[in-house]
Amino acid sequence: MDQQRERIQDDLRGLLAGEVRCDDLTLAMYSGDASVYEIQPLGVICPRGVADVAACVRYAAENDLSIHPRGAGSGLAGGALGPGLVLDFSRHMRRILHTEEGTARVQSGVVLASLNKQLAAHGHRFGPDPANASVTTMGSVVALNASGSRFLRFGAAGDYVRSLQVVLSDGEIVELGRDSLGAIGDDESSRRRSQLTADLAAVLLEHHETIVEHQPATRVPSSGYQLRGALADGRLDFGRLLSGSEGTLAAITEVTVETAPRSQHVGVVLLLFDRLENAARTVEVVLPIGLSACDLLDRRHLGLARESDVRFDLLVPATIEAALVVEVDCDSPAELRDKVAAIARLARDEHRLAVDARSTIDPQEVDLYWQLATRVVPRLYRLQGTSRPLPFVEDVVVPPPRLAEFLVELQNIFKQRHVTASVYGHAAHGRLHVRPFLDLANEDDVGRMRVLADDLYRTVLDLGGAIGGELGAGLSRTGFLPRQHGKLCDVFAEVKQAFDPQNILNPGKVVGGDPHQLTRNLRRVQAATSASDIRSDEPTTKPTGVDARAEVVPLELNWAQQSIVHAARACNGCGACRTQLDTERMCPIFRAAPREEASPRAKANLLRSILTGRLENELLAGDGFKQLADLCVHCHQCRLECPAEVDIPKLMVEARAAHVANSGLRPSEWLLTRLDLVAALAGLVRPLSNWAIGNRPMRWLMERFFGLAHGRKLPRLARRSFHRLAAKRKLTRPNLAAEHKVLYFADVYANYFDPHVGEALVAILEHNGVSVLVPAQSMQSGMAMIAMGAVERARRLAERNIAILADAVRQGYHIVATEPAAALCLTHEYPNLLDDDEARLVAANTSEACTYVWRMHLDKRLRLDDLRRIDATVAYHQPCHVRALRVGTPGEHLLRLIPGLNVLSEEHGCSGMAGTFGLARKNYRTSLRAGWDLISWLRQGQMHAGATECSACKIQMEQGTTRPTVHPLKLLALAYGRMPQGDAILKARGSELIVT
After folding, report:
1. pLDDT tens column, 518-576
2. For residues 594 and 94, is the Cβ–Cβ distance under 8 A?
3. At what angle do helices 686-693 and 675-684 cross, to 10 degrees?
């Protein structure tokens, strides 16, 4: 850390209650957002309240530093980036202060989806619905004047702002609304507001004709300050003025917004076209019916949709070139059906523009149709190759009557420049999101950015359209605003001067942009190859580095240096991994503690910074990186749900491996990676070990010396290991003559702590004519080693396991594991460790045990006629590692085959245990917070037991209740009458420190 940053950090920590961080790792995390830009700030502040914001702004004004407000960092124009102090409102300032009839008061860091979830209980919502509503914050929604697909129905954010609490550029805290001219208050804040109102009114009155003449006449707002209508009836509407100001006029800390009633009845028509222009012409045809939304998707989006979901493959034939998702809402079902039918009739039958139409009023199908837009658009980043869909001209407005003409011109522009692009947009109000496919590591492509922007914006303005609005001007478009606004830009400058005479609030956005700003400060995406590439903080107009020939970071996993760089750069920073929607799991640690460093995006940004030379790779060995790496629990949910399919778990294993190679494992971590050895040694003195596990003073000593959480419930050691039981039953001898053969991989928990799981599996398989082999050698999968970065030791273990397992596969055996982590390790992690055909052979022939049994049922090889009734209610939880296997919920399906068994299944996210993560003292509270929804559900429900395949999830599920949690295979074996414990498994009760 240089002296300036160190001084800033020390100064601000003495002034603020919130966090102040100026270290290299934090600055790297905040250097980028969802745009193509990267600018390292001087410091990052996470204010705890408005007093912190005011103090920080005063300090910046006194020291001539710029302020850059930031929400989720999901902006596409670089609006939250800058070289000064970043104010992250999403960390602490995220309280919904109150919701009343028709209004809500929120802090600026409140996520829009969270607000709508609370408003839904009252039958209301915040009207505008930007595409990233699951992560974007209300401060950003207002600052960008966001609208979304339903602009026709709800308008833009500025239409809903009643009042705002803001911090002005001198640190003064004021409440602004529709303020009367000439009003004078008694206190300093009122006088400051009155003076500001008078200054702005003078500017608006003086330039009234310029505002009327040069403000774009489009129906939807465009980039720049919304001056038209801001002054009316002797009042200045600060809500309108600050909406779309992008943090350049004031720092918004709280906002009061109007809310709208939720639609009663909603229907969607999916119109399919063989030409993009026909889709555009259809908009004018169906618009008079009264639409709430109408989104356009091109062929590329539709192709991705078909690849991502078989339902879309059935909905959208491969010959379709474009589609419109048309929504209507009505107060009565009859009116809704009439409107839906009319849309299909007009587009397909009367005007013969659409080749087909699919309509629905069913809520689930409505949601499915909308997923074409909301879920598929971000998946553009999954396309292979180095060219990416770059968001630098992605926000233009064209009058709907000229939309078809514009699309033809657009295609001609891209053909002329030999560039492909994707087109998605809200066609009914003419807003399009255009993303050319370019490579930031290619100088020619970087040069094309400026040319394409020139051509595209010229065409838009010639057709009477406008540049930007919904996504802000930011770094992408500010330099082009003079073309659109002309003399009005001088008025913008005067408005900016009235609010911010020192120009410290997000400078370079909206006002004063450089025409060449479009290609400055582009994100580094190319691997560093020499010392000259390292830590170069000069603003770049072209990419740095060439094809990697030397390793910046020595790699431990099975991939090339350039491959890891491509994996890290594949993260486009969209922030989807910050979601807290109930329908997604994404990152359980971020959900428990919503802070940037906990997000998967932060990990990708850090590794990209190291690999491209912006950060020194020695940072991987430091404690700061270690603390950040510990926030990844290797649950694989980000890999599943990331729109770009960035393999964050693999990136983090590589990074942890570099740390372990430099610093080694800590004693408590070594212990957790060798639980097989610990269990084997403890088994030699089993009575003493089991007594110690349930004894509070001994648990205190275990916490102090071994780092195991004192309050964590733990399992007792079994009387005999499963491997000993298997040897006694001669299961260690292969049966080469059997038609169906399975090798059972018993991991640590099933072997030492719960051998009844293995016995249940063997009983089920033998009952259904499957021969079972249990290798004589005691094995563990090594997942804990991999998750903690002990890759070299894990590789040696994998080599031993692969030698045994591959030989069995060649003899006709299929490998099954009752522990989902073990199955995932064999199928996913071992090929990452070993570039070996044997590893790939094992991976291709391994299944999680419930998955194997469920497939037996699908193949009609599972006996159902002799299953007896179990009159009980169980609550099923799907483990993260089962989800990561992409096999659905086979355990739940098996439970539903059992007569009389009532199976409850609700999505409550990750259990929070995350393998060995929740065992450690330092992670205990975080683990409970991450899994609290699940624990609460189990405590409150009227069920006899929980059910899950994962031993770690079982431990967490029993943490807050005495009810047992059992493996689905135990219940299936019980139904067959083959469970050694009998009905006792449902009647068992855990104690204060012991699981069942």
Report:
1. 999 999 887 765 444 544 444 444 444 434 434 556 788 888 777 888 888 888 899 99
2. yes
3. 120
